[in-house]
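Supplementary notes for students who missed Thursday's class. We covered one full example, reproduced here. Read the sequence, then the structure, then the short commentary at the end.
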Amino acid sequence: MADVMSAEKRSSLMSRIKGKDTRPEMLVRQGLWRAGLRYRLHDRRLPGRPDLVLPRWHAVVLVHGCFWHQHPGCPHAAVPATRAESWQQKLSGNRERDARAHGALLASGWRVAVVWECALRQDAERSIRTLEQWVRSSGQTIEIGRQP
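Structure (token representation):
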């Protein structure tokens, strides 16, 4: 199936997709800041450059977009019909990279939280409250996703 947009328009559209400072990430950052939790952003010294690093709690937070990180079972994670094979390859590469970074963070002693975009869309306050409680706890990992 051919793309419905011209190559120039598609390129322009894709170039505006941000890798950091996204709306979901900003929601999490603002919520944790209000809760009195301080963090660093996108620490290049850590595997996968986590979105937020909370050194005092030895915890990192990864804010994942459901489409780009292919949240299992999420309706926002549908692969486009146009150039499906190319998209599948790109998105599965993202998942593999996420798994490597997650494993490397755990292996180096970090606690890891994954917050999915759909959870923030559904109930941002509840998701951030859950995340805050996890940070202050001793839990090793948490995944905050959409509630059925």
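Commentary. Residues 85 and 145 are 27 Å apart (CA to CA). The domain at 17-144 is CATH 3.40.960.10 (Endonuclease; Chain A). If anything here is unclear, bring it to office hours.
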